[in-house]
Write a structure and sequence with these properties.
Number of domains: 2
Strand content: 15-25%
CATH topology of the largest domain: Glutaredoxin
Radius of gyration: 20 Å
Largest sheet: 8 strands, mixed
Order of helices and strands: HEHEHEEHHEHEHEEHH
Shape: globular
Helix content: 40-55%
Distance between the termini: 65 Å
CATH class of the largest domain: Alpha Beta
CATH architecture of the largest domain: 3-Layer(aba) Sandwich
C-alpha cells in the first residue's frame, strides 16, 4: 500500500521534475533483524525514489555491505546518505525520516541536486571562515514541528562547505546518543561533540555556534555578536516606525 496519497505523489513528482538539477543517489543501509524502523525507512525511500527517474535508490545491508558503510562513515542504522551529482556532501539521516522529517528528506534531495545552499551574504562570509572539520548532529523526533528547520540548516551547511558533515539523528531510535548529549528537548544540535544549541536557531546564531565549535569565535563573542544583531534589528524597526509616523503626519 502506498504511503503517500495520490495528491501528495503528484505534488512531489511535479516538484522533482521542476527543481532537480543533478541526479540524486539515495544510499540506504539497513538489515532485517535488530533494527526497529529499517523496513519502514526503506519503504519511504522506495516510494520517494519512484517519483522521479532522476533519483536512484541503492539498498545496502549493513552487515554484508560493511565496506561500503565504512567508506561513507555509516556506523548505525537505519542510515540514509544523500548524494548529488555523484558527490557526497556529508548529508546523513540516522533513523526514519517520517512525520515532519519527511520534509527534511525532500529538502535534502533538492539541495544536493542543486549543489548549493541559500545562505545570506553575511552567512556566506561566516561559512568562508570554516577551516576545520565540522561534525553536526541534529537530534529530532518525527512529531517535532520545529525540527525540520534545524535539520535543513545543518544539511544546507554541509552542501555549502566541504568541511561539514551533518546528520539528522532520531532521538527515540538512538537513546544512548540522546542520553550522552543530554537531549531533553528537540531539536538539539551538537557540533563537534562540544558545542550545543537548543531549538531551531536562526542562521546567524547557528553559524556562530559552528565557528565557536572550531575555535574561530568564543562563547562570549557569539553572545556579543547576536546581541549586536538584535540591537541593530531593533534600531531598524524603530527607524521604520518613525518614518511611518512622519509619513502619516504629512
Amino acid at each position: 500500500m502506498p504511503l503517500l496519497s495520490d495528491r501528495d505523489r503528484k505534488t512531489l513528482s511535479d516538484l522533482f521534475a521542476a527543481e532537480l538539477v543533478e541526479p540524486v543517489t539515495i544510499v540506504y543501509f539497513g538489515q532485517e533483524m535488530a533494527c526497529q524502523f529499517c523496513r519502514e525507512t526503506q519503504a519511504i525511500l522506495e516510494e520517494v525514489a519512484g517519483l522521479s527517474d532522476r533519483i536512484e535508490l541503492q539498498l545496502n545491508n549493513f552487515v554484508v555491505d560493511k565496506a561500503r558503510a565504512e567508506s561513507l562513515g555509516v556506523d548505525k542504522i537505519p542510515a540514509t546518505v544523500i548524494l548529488g551529482g555523484g558527490k557526497d556532501y556529508g548529508v546523513r539521516f540516522y533513523g526514519i525520516p517520517s512525520g515532519y522529517e519527511f520534509t527534511s528528506l525532500v529538502q535534502a534531495i533538492l539541495t544536493v541536486s542543486k549543489g548549493e545552499a541559500d545562505f545570506s551574504p553575511t552567512g556566506q562570509e561566516l561559512i568562508a571562515k570554516i577551516d576545520k572539520p565540522v561534525h553536526i548532529q541534529v537530534f529530532i523526533t518525527p512529531t517535532c514541528p520545529y525540527c525540520p528547520q534545524a535539520v535543513h540548516m545543518a544539511h544546507a551547511l554541509a552542501v555549502a562547505s566541504d568541511q561539514v558533515t551533518a546528520e539528522m539523528v532520531e532521538s527515540v531510535e538512538f537513546p544512548h546518543l540522546a542520553n550522552r548529549y543530554g537531549v531533553q528537548t528537540v531539536p538539539k544540535t551538537v557540533i563537534n561533540e562540544t558545542t550545543f544549541q537548543d531549538g531551531a536557531a536562526p542562521e546567524p546564531l547557528f553559524l556562530a555556534r559552528v565557528l565557536q565549535a572550531i575555535g574561530v569565535m568564543t562563547a562570549q563573542e557569539v553572545d556579543d555578536y547576536i546581541d549586536g544583531l538584535r540591537q541593530a534589528h531593533a534600531r531598524s524597526g524603530e527607524e521604520d516606525a518613525q518614518a511611518d509616523r512622519q509619513s502619516e503626519g504629512r
